Description:
It is a single chain. This protein has 11 helices and 5 strands. By secondary structure, it is α/β, with parallel strands linked by helices. Helices cover about 55% and strands about 10% of the residues.
Amino acid sequence: MRLGFCSQDGLLMQAVADYLLELGEVQQSVVFRRGERMLREIGQGKRYDGIVLDSLMRDMDALEFLLRLREMPRSTRPPVILLGTTDEFARIQCRAPGDVDAFLCKPLHPELLAERIHFFCGESTQSISPARQLLRKWGMREEETQSQYFVAAVQMLAKANGQVALRKELLPMVARRYGVSAAAVDSGLRRMIQGLEENQPAAYLQFKQENGLGDTKPTVKKLLYACSRTQEKQEEKETVYAGAQ
């Protein structure tokens, strides 16, 4: 994985980059103090699997960087992990909604950053997992813990082809990944479903109808299984496409 770091604090970012290299999460990293230099590289076709973007660089802030990045072809835009305050994140969400893939509050904790990189980077923008695509369509914030539980659970369930017990195997596996209890994961997923039922986003209602979930509130098990089938179908399409090349 090739990662780009962009911050006015180059020394801190270099230390974080070295830590991630030692962990094995990143194979190559480049630290930029100026956003203009990184934007120029991306515009020239240099590939990055992800960007760790500080709220402030020497020549611009994160919002300007994201608005400039948005002007580039979608296929060239790497996932972005933003570092900043909650107020800064809220301001960016208003001006550039959907342009931040994950958010971390300062002060920076390298372990949490490694976790976000593992989940959000390394996949091209054209092959964003179906679980994350569903979250975006439903208007869910991907950086929330319940959204991360959802993505992890759907991905694990899809890989297991549905052959896994929800409460005895799946939820504990997700829980171990995040260092929480299975009950916490279950509670988070239930809150997510309750929020969707209360807000009634059109894309969520359409998904329920298309997957036989009816008009009632689905259980955690039913929603995860329906979403995992969506992911399996997407992966089958990608395999067929790749084999035709």
